[in-house]
Design a protein that fits this description.
The complex is a heterodimer of chains A (308) and B (315). Helices cover 73% and strands 0% of the residues of chain A. With 308 residues, chain A is mostly helical. The radius of gyration of chain A is 24 Å and the shape is globular. A two-stranded antiparallel ribbon of chain B has the order 1-2. Chain B is globular, with a radius of gyration of 25 Å. Classes of the chains: A mainly alpha (308), B mainly alpha (315). At the A-B interface, helix 1, helix 2, helix 3, helix 6 and helix 7 of A face helix 2, helix 4, helix 5, helix 6 and helix 7 of B.
């Protein structure tokens, strides 16, 4: 955790120090070459995104006449069109309806498991952690057929799902995403909880605190940093999830936004400017999350990989 | 594994890993309620994961030996032994192209974006003005979905209106032409993969003890040789994780080919074949399950390595 956070957000002193050392260091030719190389690469990396943004603001008729390698024809109409034709309000709401409960459930369940696994020890501890973590890594396609059949047979009351079954309902996606993601979160959280001093619980026990109170009032508040990191990561992942949404929801109107982008592709021709605007709109939430919560995002990713 | 097995009654006790803990171990007064709570806390998530991951995985293996159109009850299932596998390996045309494409995918993603990501991490792992800016640029594609990546690159790859053709003066349908579309898609996938590897590696490099480098520098070891002789071996766990993640992601590759053309015409991948056999026109449950089992077998190898590495230090 500490390695990741120092890397992402150097404190004011750290920044000042590194600026000072950088100034002291002479700009050798090698260093200039390094900067040129990195700058060119970075621009190349941003280019596909910038190209999409650039063309999303241009009129289709203009680019059709002058070609895309031109300048002009700026308009905002693509955004309005994409929003309307792609029914974006509806699909963004779908994304929220799937992502929010799935992330909350995932974090809650994995916190429960991690708490028990680190707080109490019994023989099956490591096995259980392996069971959860491996579930996160199996290819989802290899689980598809049984899940598809089970969900098709599982009845749900009409007020929960208008298809009458688990298949073709938001519940299906919430459950599957939760089951798959719990492993990673359990692993990260249990790594973090292991670092909490054990004396904490001993004094709580002397006070007669129940397991529930220890979990809720002691462990969870202390786990705010990894929970924030995981929440950021999971919101992005589940928002981006494509496979399960595509196969478990058959009716297009239930698709979350990531799977709904196909609606903007016309049957016979593709309006690339419209598609660019749609792509930019779909890309915005994770990009905003990344810029606002960069520290959480990065520490969540590195936490899972570098510890253990 | 039954739901309650992880919490054998009365065996719930404190972790005694700390030094001298056994001496301090007091008999914990676990009430019945506490035990029930612990059982539920572990039991519910375990049940969910077993029901929605392990049971289906097992189901795929089982159904791989069956013939079933999926219509009618479970009693219409015919057990046909290894016939599905025989058919896959002998008379199913897309199988070998898919296998080959998955292999090309793996080799490309490893030799180009993975190594590039490591290289960038090494370059960025020093006091560099604007270092964070570069990092952000490389990492930005990682937060986008692979499906969206497919759309964004379409603007560059389009036959009539794409930038690539406009610059190169060609008229290639980069997503449609089976001779080139796999490579076009690999470039787009690699674009997203580089930042992820860079980030993992950068975190690993920051954790390397600086005195190691100093010692190497005192010995007059150059930067390149220090990296290969000292840093790389120290980073063994990260190396293995990066490797396994690359393998698993290559095997699971699906989203981008599905948005481009549902995994046909040059873009056959095993994951897409499984999906086609279930949600497509023909619902061939047994056959699709046999394909899924092949995926499962390959992936379990890498999953085992991954678990061994990340959980090795525990106990």
């Amino acid at each position: 955790m500490s390695t990741a956070s120092t890397e992402v957000a150097p404190g004011p002193t750290g920044a000042a120090q590194s600026a000072a050392t950088a100034r002291k260091r002479r700009m050798t030719p090698a260093r200039i070459a390094l900067h040129v190389f990195l700058a060119v690469m970075a621009l190349g990396w941003l280019f596909p995104l910038l190209w999409a943004v650039f063309n999303s603001f241009r009129d289709y008729a203009y680019t059709a006449e002058h070609g895309y390698a031109s300048f002009g024809g700026f308009t905002l109409a693509n955004y309005a069109n994409a929003w309307e034709r792609g029914n974006f309000t509806h699909h963004f709401v779908n994304s929220v309806l799937i992502t929010a409960p799935a992330v909350l459930l995932t974090l809650f369940l994995s916190a429960c498991v991690a708490f028990v696994l680190t707080r109490f020890s019994f023989k099956l501890n490591l096995t259980l952690l392996g069971v959860f973590l491996a579930a996160n890594l199996l290819p989802p396609q290899s689980l598809l057929i049984p899940i598809y059949r089970i969900f098709r047979l599982a009845p749900l009351p009409m007020w929960m799902s208008d298809s009458g079954t688990l298949l073709n309902s938001y519940w299906a996606l919430i459950l599957v995403n939760t089951a798959v993601q719990t492993g990673f979160c359990t692993f990260v959280l249990s790594n973090y909880m292991k670092t909490l001093p054990h004396e904490l619980y001993e004094s709580a026990e002397v006070d007669g605190a129940t397991v529930v109170r220890q979990f809720w009032q002691l462990t969870l508040p202390l786990c705010r940093p990894p929970l924030a990191a995981l929440a950021t990561l999971q919101v992005t992942w589940i928002y981006n999830e494509f496979f399960w949404a595509t196969v478990l929801l058959q009716s297009g109107d239930k698709f979350p936004i990531t799977s709904a982008l196909n609606n903007l592709k016309g049957q016979f021709f593709v309006d690339y400017n419209l598609l660019s605007a749609g792509s930019v709109l779909v890309a915005l939430p994770p990009i905003i999350i990344f810029f606002v919560l960069q520290k959480q995002f990065v520490s969540g990713l590195t936490l899972g990989a570098t510890k253990g | 594994m039954s739901v309650t097995s992880p919490t054998p009654a009365g065996r719930v006790r404190k972790d005694t890993t700390e030094g001298g803990a056994s001496a301090r171990r007091r008999r914990r007064r676990t009430t019945g309620l506490d035990r029930a709570v612990v059982a539920v806390m572990v039991g519910v998530p375990t049940a969910l994961v077993i029901l929605l991951v392990w049971l289906p995985a097992f189901g795929s293996v089982l159904l791989g030996f069956a013939r079933w159109e999926g219509i009618g009850g479970l009693d219409t299932i015919q057990w046909i032994g290894l016939e599905n596998y025989r058919n896959i390996f002998t008379i199913y045309p897309p199988f070998y192209p898919a296998l080959q494409n998955n292999l090309i995918w793996l080799l490309f993603i490893f030799f180009v974006p993975t190594l590039l990501g490591i290289f960038l991490a090494v370059l960025l792992d020093r006091e560099l003005r604007g270092g964070r800016l570069y990092q952000t640029a490389f990492f930005l594609p990682v937060v986008l979905s692979l499906a969206l990546t497919g759309f964004i690159w379409q603007l560059l790859y389009s036959r009539d209106q794409g930038l690539v053709n406009a610059i190169a003066g060609t008229e290639i349908d980069w997503y449609g032409n089976p001779d080139v579309n796999l490579w076009a898609i690999l470039v787009a996938t690699g674009w997203k993969h580089v930042g992820y590897v860079m980030l993992l590696y950068l975190a690993g490099l920051k954790a390397v003890d600086p005195s190691l480098r100093e010692a190497a520098a005192m010995d007059g070891s150059g930067e390149v040789s220090t990296f290969f002789r000292i840093i790389l071996p120290v980073m063994a766990p990260i190396n293995i994780i990066v490797l396994v993640v690359t393998f698993i992601d290559s095997l699971r590759a699906f989203d981008i080919v599905w948005v481009v053309n549902k995994g046909r015409n040059g873009l056959e991948l095993i994951a897409a074949l499984v999906t086609q056999n279930v949600v497509g026109e023909a619902s061939r449950i047994g056959f699709g399950s046999a394909l899924a089992t092949i995926m499962l077998l390959i992936s379990s190898l890498f999953v085992a390595v991954y678990l061994k590495v990340v959980m090795g230090g525990r106990k």
